[in-house]
Structure formats: C-alpha cells, structure tokens
C-alpha cells in the first residue's frame, strides 16, 4: 500500500483527498496545514509520497521543497494546486516536480502517485 | 488606408485588457478550490457508506457551498451591485458577540484573543458588521502570524475594533494599493488563494453603516481598524 502525506491549508481538501485516496487503496499516514508541518509529518511518518499544495500561509510549498528534498530524496512529491500560472509551471519544471491542478476527480492524482511511488 | 489608434487610447485599452485578464484569473482561481471540492464531495458522498464519513462529507459540502455563495456576494458588493448588500434591519449589535460570530463563520483555525469592552454596542445591520469583521479576521488568519488579537474600545463617539497580528506586512510599494479591487500583494499571492476583494468589500460594508475601515502598519505587524458610530450612553 502506498503511504501518503497530504499537505494543504484547506481542511476540506485534505478530507476529500483522504476519503477518495483511501477508497483507491492508498494509506494516508499524515496531514499538514503548511510547509513546516509537511516537513515534520514526513520526518515522522516516512511516507512514499507527499501531495503538496503550493500556496499556504506560513511556510508555503515552494519554500518547503528544498528541505523536503534534502531530508527525503527518494520520497515522491506531487504539487497539487488551484493556481498554476507561468511562474508556478516554470518552478515545478525546474525542480522536476509533477504539477497537477486541483480537481474533484482524483484519478490523475492516483495514477501519478502509483507511477512515482510504486509498491 | 489604415486607421491607427492614438497612442494614449492604445495604452488605455492595453491597461483595461490587463486588468480584465487579472480579474478573470483571480476569480477563476478563487472559485476553483471550493467548486472542485464540491464536485469531489458529491462523488465521494454517493460512494460513502460509513455514516461518520458521510456526516463529515455533508458538513464539508455545506461549508464549501457557503464559501461559493459568499464569494459571489462579495464580488457583487465589490462591483457596486447594491442588491448584494445585507438588507436586515438596523439593530443594536454588541461588538464582542459580532467578533465571535464572525470568527465562527470563517471556521478560524488559529487562536483569537478578544480584549477590551465586549459590550460596546453600535446601531447597524448585524450582517454587514459581522461580514466585514469576518473578512478582516480572515485576512489576518491567512496572512499574519500567531494569534489574532482583537481589541474593542471607544474613542470619542466612535466604537473601534482593532484586529492585529504580527508579520504579513505588504511591501511599502504595495501599501497604497491594498484597498484596490482585485489587487493582491506578493505575500498574499504566495500564501493563499483569494480574490483580492476582502478589504474593499469590508470597507464598502462598513461605510454603508457610517463607519470606516483602515489598515495600519506597526513595528512587525498589521492592524486592521474598524470604526463605527457608537450608541450614546454605552460605555
């Protein structure tokens, strides 16, 4: 079972991802509301993958990525955001992090997690 | 024969086009999260069998539907459509109660510290006061750090609500623009999705009740200041 941490400041987005991904056979091992918590949860739970919102109060997703990469280089990171302008797209391309737009249907997200963090 | 636009007209049209793109972009992004969440929740509800999960999802559907409704109301108020303004009767509003009601309405996650004269009372449309307070509290919750400190007090014939957090200061060059519709500073853009209409809508609502909304930069923080005419005879 692929073990996943979800980092998003919107509690309902976290709820929806938990319900939908658990139904698809993923295990949600932690949730975080900003980049700092994402770093802490990933250190504590050692997940296979992190779903990372980019725009969050406090330490945002962009700021957390270097530390997450350094701490857990093999962990898959998927950027999951409502906002994907040129800057966001270029930054994620530069960091080689796949970028998915938030959607009510998690089929693409689930497929990407299976591709990047096979078990 | 070609017909060329005067340079000034062309520049003005280019500016209008840039504003139009910015507004559509901001609205699209602000609506994306609650609407995609609603779509997902509808599907998840149809599949969920566990009554606890169903109850969680039903509450979340309601929250997100309210979020969309408020975004639309705020957009209409921001654009000057008066039919979106609260129409409840003017009544006596205790500001302490109004602050807590506003805080509950945004499902504030963090800590709110309320001090001062909680029974300070104004005569206003309750919905307008609570919505304006909710918008200010939401701004501080999204962009400030640590607990939100709210102080209620009286200055002359004005009731004053001050909402303060540390951090989250817009850059100096951005400060003259923060009450502009659809303007979002760099810190705001990087912190959370939003429409960039919270402050102008809060100001429009409070001005409708005879008051003012201003923002002050302090040493290391931001204070939102809402003033309304106080009821004579209250402390």
Strand and helix map with partners:
The complex is a heterodimer of chains A (119) and B (235).
Chain A (H helix, E strand, L loop, with lengths): L2 E5 L3 H13 L3 E6 L2 H11 L3 E4 L8 H11 L4 E6 L4 H9 L4 E3 L5 H10 L3
Parallel strand pairs in A: 1-2, 1-3, 3-4, 4-5
Chain B lengths: L6 H41 L3 H28 L11 E5 H11 L6 E5 L4 E5 H18 L1 E11 L2 E9 L19 H6 L6 H10 L4 E7 L2 E9 L6
Parallel strand pairs in B: 2-4
Antiparallel strand pairs in B: 1-3, 4-5, 5-7, 6-7
Provide a descriptive summary of the structure in words.
- The complex is a heterodimer of chains A (119) and B (235).
- With 119 residues, chain A is of the alpha/beta class.
- Chain A contains 5 helices and 5 strands, in the order βαβαβαβαβα.
- Chain B is of the alpha+beta class.
- In chain B, 49% of the residues lie in helices and 22% in strands.
- Chain B has 6 helices and 7 strands.
- In chain B, helix 2 (51-78) packs across helix 6 and helix 3 packs across helix 4.
- The longest helix of chain B is centred in the N-terminal third of the chain and has 41 residues, at 7-47.
- The interface between A and B is medium-sized, with 26 and 32 residues.
